[in-house]
Specification:
single chain, 73 residues, mainly alpha, 434 Repressor (Amino-terminal Domain), two-stranded antiparallel sheet, 5 helices, 2 strands, 5% strand, Lambda_DNA-bd_dom_sf, Transcriptional regulator, DNA-binding, Cro/C1-type_HTH
Length: 73
Amino acid sequence: MVKPTRVTNRIRALRFAHDEMTQADLADRIGVTRQTLIAIEQGRYSPSLEMAFRIARVFKVPLDDVFQYPEET
């Protein structure tokens, strides 16, 4: 069983804020399958650093506006 990532993201909110971009459109723009994007968006998969930057650049926002990692307690 795959352990979910602690990295959270705002991809869905950003897609809707950008003319309701579809998962398929974003996946095409960053060079992955729609299934991979769904897994990232749902927090079941952490993207590579390169892919994370590609996603942020599509939305023209800083990386930490897309992805968050909880503070250590």
